[in-house]
Design a protein that fits this description.
Blueprint: E1 3-5, H1 11-17, E2 22-24, H2 25-30, E3 36-41, H3 47-58, E4 65-71, H4 82-88, E5 90-91, E6 100-105, H5 121-134, E7 135-141, H6 143-153, E8 158-172, E9 186-196, H7 199-203, E10 208-214, E11 218-224, E12 229-232, H8 242-252, H9 278-294
Parallel strand pairs: 1-2, 3-4, 3-6, 4-5, 6-7, 7-12
Antiparallel strand pairs: 8-9, 8-10, 10-11, 11-12
């Protein structure tokens, strides 16, 4: 949350130059507050795990957030009961006439398929088109980022020579970007994917900027200047054991899988993972909610355009 200071306090300019958010008395006195409406479009197979991971991060602010969980009508989930979905999830058709402060599009285990081969792609493209005028800021994660970049900006995805799997070091490219306020110059984030996007393709698009990237994992956070669309190519929401669970699952199936990079202590699968990404993940979600949703969405949510 911002700190409120007198309008003409000299510290205001110094703090603003350091990318610290300060709010003058005039703005604070005129600010209206209401709960934020956030939609989570959960495309992951283990929905209860993903929804818990995301809600944990969204709850780490003083802001009140109202969550709506959405499931794809054109796809039958195999890993969760119909009763659970009926109780806690809704379909896009039921909310498409509403407007929302934020939308999260999760990853999905379909990245090796062509976009057009995904059974719910038409429904998903409809939701992404709807989001342009009915959601103030959309946060796309992993495959959600790839399909979002492809739909909105025709950015291609490429199959990798080997799975990008592990915890990778990232750098801050724009230290004035509010989304990265509080981030260290170098921070870590998990990736688990067989495909990726290329920086050279993104740099050709004037509306997009790469605000964080990794020498090994490539572009990490891509966004529009106004933050209405944000694309995160990794999985900042992952729990401490998520990569390990994926690794041991594939081993048990007899699949060829390398140990997740920079994950197990001493690179030994018999030892606990080294958790090095949670602080950066919390900062990322906190900043998204504060600077690109709460501070920017019209108080009268119907005025979103």
């Amino acid at each position: 949350m911002p700190i409120k200071i007198p309008d003409n306090l000299p510290a205001a300019k110094v703090l603003q130059n350091e990318n610290i958010f300060v709010m003058t008395e005039d703005r604070a006195n005129s600010q209206q507050i209401r709960p934020l409406k956030i939609v989570i479009l959960n495309l992951m197979p283990k929905k209860t795990v993903t929804e818990t991971q995301l809600i944990r991060l969204l709850s780490n602010t003083p802001l009140q957030v109202d969550i709506t969980l959405v499931n794809m009508k054109s796809h039958k989930s195999k890993n969760i009961s119909e009763e659970y979905l009926a109780k806690f999830y809704t379909y896009f058709d039921d909310i498409k006439h509403e407007k929302f402060d934020g939308l999260i599009v999760t990853g999905a285990p379909v990245e090796t398929m062509e976009f057009d081969e995904v059974d719910y792609i038409d429904e998903l493209r409809g939701i992404m088109e709807w989001s342009v005028h009915n959601v103030y800021s959309t946060l796309h994660i992993c495959w959600g980022a790839q399909v979002g970049l492809n739909y909105h900006y025709n950015v291609k995805k490429y199959e990798l020579k080997e799975k990008m799997f592990g915890v990778f070091k990232h750098t801050v490219n724009d230290d004035k970007c509010p989304l990265l306020r509080g981030m260290d110059d170098e921070f870590y984030a998990p990736h688990s994917r067989h495909t990726g996007v290329k920086a050279e393709d993104i740099k050709k698009i004037s509306k997009l900027k790469i605000v964080s990237e990794s020498e090994k994992a490539g572009p990490y956070i891509v966004m529009t200047e106004d933050g209405r669309q944000i694309f995160v190519t990794g999985h900042p929401e992952y729990d401490s054991n998520t990569l390990g669970d994926e690794y041991f699952r594939d081993l048990s199936k007899g699949l060829e899988i390398k140990k997740p990079y920079h994950y197990f202590k001493d690179d030994d699968p018999e030892k606990k993972p080294m958790v090095t990404w949670k602080s950066a993940a919390n900062i990322l979600f906190y900043n998204w909610l504060n600077y690109y949703v709460y501070q920017e969405t019209p108080f009268e949510i119907e005025n979103i355009k």
